[in-house]
């Protein structure tokens, strides 16, 4: 973070989603005063620092640039590295529990690290999937241990939502908390978190008009405006891909487990074709998400074949997918990763193939 007060005011204002006029109204000052602060042609009076920090939802230290961001980044990196090491445990449910207990301790030691709190809530959402008796049914012999994590995680997630100025972290925390409540069968609380998430229902989304904004900011210089717009197009195309990939994962998963044979094949093929269209512009997508979802679609199509008693066809689907990946514009490491993930799914879910009562659900974490 910049140590310049004006830049910090602008950053935190945008994180809260305020215009300069809205911030001025909240502080009972003129928009021109806010503009001067942010352009550094003037500074707020000392008496304004506390109310300004309160309105922006940050500490005065953060506002003034005194918080030790580099140290916080080092802590975050260390914790994420440790989580990655814990995730090497081959037992999926057990590693989920170990990660959550580790993050519970780290969030106690670093209560202001919202990035790690967000990770803790997301990992607990993953844990809740394994604990859900309707799905996996793990940990039924240690309810106190699991309930302790739920209680701790929900409390810390609520704290993040109330105090964090980063809307991305807040939205991800709402999303993960909704999944926790879904698995706890508290659907009213799940809906409360879902209902505050951004929606595409109106079509009036920020990313779309933001692309137009950078074009018109260049005035009547169309060449410059379009060059600026292309940068935004690339950024927003990645976001569009992430949304599409998450929905494709959910669609193919449920048709694979529950759809009629022909319908499941048709929908999974449709999902795969969408992903193939995206990979044609590899620089516009998140390659890690692509690998994960591409393998999910392939796997759930195989699940549909197994459920229909067509084991030989499932093997043919596997062979065809392996050949396609081998020929695809991916690095050797990416090809190896996608096949490793598919092999892991096949090994783990083999006990469920054909069993309609026990299914693991990917919560999109």
How would you characterize the overall build of this protein?
The chain is mainly alpha-helical and 365 residues long. The chain folds into three domains: 5-64, 434 Repressor (Amino-terminal Domain) (Orthogonal Bundle); 69-194; 206-349. The protein contains 17 helices and no strands. The longest helix has 37 residues, at 222-258. The model is unreliable at 354-362 (pLDDT under 50).
Write the layout of secondary structure elements.
Blueprint: H1 5-16, H2 20-27, H3 31-39, H4 49-56, H5 60-64, H6 69-86, H7 92-109, H8 114-131, H9 143-163, H10 167-183, H11 187-194, H12 206-217, H13 222-258, H14 261-279, H15 287-307, H16 311-327, H17 332-349
Short description:
73% of the residues lie in helices and 0% in strands. The protein is an all-alpha fold and 365 residues long. It folds into 3 domains: 5-64, lambda repressor-like DNA-binding domains (434 Repressor (Amino-terminal Domain), Orthogonal Bundle); 69-194; 206-349.
């Amino acid at each position: 973070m910049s140590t310049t007060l004006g830049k910090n005011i602008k950053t935190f204002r945008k994180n809260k989603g305020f215009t300069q006029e809205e911030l001025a109204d909240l502080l009972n000052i003129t928009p021109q005063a806010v503009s001067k602060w942010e352009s550094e042609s003037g500074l707020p009076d000392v008496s304004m620092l506390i109310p300004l920090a309160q309105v922006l939802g940050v500490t005065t230290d953060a506002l003034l640039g005194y918080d030790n961001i580099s140290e916080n980044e080092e802590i975050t990196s260390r914790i994420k590295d440790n989580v990655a090491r814990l995730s090497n445990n081959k037992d999926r449910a057990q590693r989920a529990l170990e990660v959550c207990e580790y993050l519970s301790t780290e969030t106690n030691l670093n209560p202001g690290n919202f990035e790690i709190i967000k990770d803790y809530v997301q990992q607990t959402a993953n844990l809740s999937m394994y604990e859900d008796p309707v799905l996996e049914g793990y940990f039924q012999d240690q309810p106190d241990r699991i309930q302790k994590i739920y209680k701790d995680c929900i409390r810390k997630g609520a704290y993040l939502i109330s105090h964090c100025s980063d809307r991305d972290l807040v939205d991800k925390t709402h999303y993960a908390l909704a999944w926790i409540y879904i698995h706890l069968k508290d659907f009213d609380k799940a809906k409360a978190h879902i209902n505050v998430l951004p929606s595409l229902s109106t079509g009036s989304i920020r990313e779309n008009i933001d692309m137009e904004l950078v074009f018109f900011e260049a005035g009547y210089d169309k060449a410059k405006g379009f060059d600026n717009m292309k940068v935004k197009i690339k950024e927003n195309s990645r976001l569009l891909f992430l949304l599409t990939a998450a929905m494709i994962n959910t669609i193919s998963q449920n048709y694979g487990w529950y759809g009629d044979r022909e319908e499941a094949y048709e929908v999974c093929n449709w999902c795969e074709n969408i992903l193939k269209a995206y990979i044609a512009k590899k620089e516009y997508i998140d390659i890690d998400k692509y690998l994960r979802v591409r393998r999910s679609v392939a796997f759930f199509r195989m699940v549909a074949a197994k459920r229909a008693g067509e084991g030989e066809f499932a093997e043919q689907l596997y062979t065809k997918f392996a050949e396609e990946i081998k020929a695809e514009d991916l690095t050797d490491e990416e090809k190896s990763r996608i096949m490793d993930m598919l092999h892991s799914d096949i090994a783990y879910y083999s006990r469920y193939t054909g069993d309609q009562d026990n299914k693991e659900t990917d919560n999109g974490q």
